[in-house]
Amino acid sequence: MSTGSTPPRTSWPQSGPFRPPPRPALPRHAASDAAQADAAESPAPGPEPSAATPHRRARLERVYVITNGRSAPGSDLDLVTLIVATDAAPPGLPPEQATIMRLCRRPLSVAELSAHLRLPFSATAVLVGDLLAAGLAVQRRPVRPAAIDHELLEQVINGLRRL
Amino acid sequence: MASGASNRAPAADAADISDAADVSAAAGVADASDDVSDVSDVSDVSGEPGLEPGLPTTTTVALKIAVVGPLGVGKTTFVTSVSDIAPLTTEEPMSGPAPAGAPPTKTTTTVAMDFGRISLDDRVVLYLFGTPGQERFWFLWDGLVEGALGAIVLVDVRRLEESFDVLERLEDRSVPFIVAANCFPDAPLYPVEDLRAAMDLPASVPVVLCDARERSSCRDVLLDLSTYLLALTHPAPGVTPNTIR
Question: Cα(B40)–Cα(B67) distance, rounded to whole angstroms?
Fold first, then answer.
């Protein structure tokens, strides 16, 4: 991984005023493994994984029926692609997609839709993709890196200064 | 984000790895807001009345910044401090073999990213995603780091080495980043140049101190990143982007 021009980050500097807590100088990957072990053994690891309620399982199963088990095939939806509904939800739309259309009366990112629906991002992307294909919603694509220019960054800086 | 199972690291344990789950282990930082990623209480969202979370209709530009760091370093706290909205959680099941000790039927672990947003003006919205830094979660990065404005690497000076992998990952992917040391109340204070040396960072990469609990402090970190990115678009003599080696 090291690109050669910098020494590997395997140990602390041996001189200077910096006095890190004493630790063995581990190879980089060993240090990473140790960190993971620390995390896994921390005294308060938090709640159990949240997957298990029957209600949620039923909802997920229903969504996977709607999506035919697809998981965002060829989707170019980004976490921050903004989705806007083009109209009110037509009758007969599955409840999750009706909810998306209601949430997207104003622009909302796919990540936020995923959070509000409490569905995995990949499943949300499939549902949104179907709405886009049906013309019930449109997307505002995120800015690509090549388009991040001086003007946009100054706009960002000015916006942050107003916070 | 869902770029294929081949990128997915196997679940190494059964713990919920959202940043919220472990913060209590991070010494002494009051951090009640990290509870937000408990999503186990599932209501029928289609029945929620009057929910209008949408952005102004004039919003056309969505940007994202990754806030990356090890568990418990304060990513969710940071996002919460500057977000316009209560932080949200997006999840993705992470496929893999059942972790040791888990019930044999359990084959996936849910990976959660907490995020928030800031409307910078009537046209531009900035999203902040708190992202676990460990290697086994790197499949998440495919959807996050690609196209991101840049990254903030949040570090705890008491365990800098936990961020080494993240730094190399960002360098390899040419993602511009700055490093922000979250100043936990009981952690020692080091000069930033000493931190820079310990992380082998070139002089061009900003290293700043912050308090993730303070909105103004987090705002300043975002400004530092944005100013750095601006400098990269017009490199001054002697300024080398950290992403070019």
Answer: 24
Consecutive H or E run containing A115: helix A110-117
Which residues 7-36 on chain B approach chain A with CB closer than 8 angstroms? 12-18, 20-22, 24-25
Q: How far apart are CA A124 and CA A111, in angstroms?
A: 8
Q: Whole-angstrom Cα distance, residue B125 to residue A83?
A: 13
Q: What is the DSSP string of B124-167?
A: EEEEEEEEE-SGGGGGGHHHHTTT-SEEEEEE-GGGGGGGHHHH
Which of A23, A26, A142 comes nearest B62 by C-beta?
A: A142
| pLDDT one-digit tens code per residue, A109-154 | 999 999 999 998 989 999 999 999 999 999 998 887 778 899 999 9
pTM for the predicted model, two decimal places: 0.72
- For the question of an ipTM over 0.90, the answer is no
Closest-CA residue of A relative to B107 is A51
**β pairing state of B61-69 and B177-182:** unpaired
A47, two tokens: 């709640």
Query: Does the distance separating the beta carbons of B124 and A159 come in below 8 Å?
Result: yes
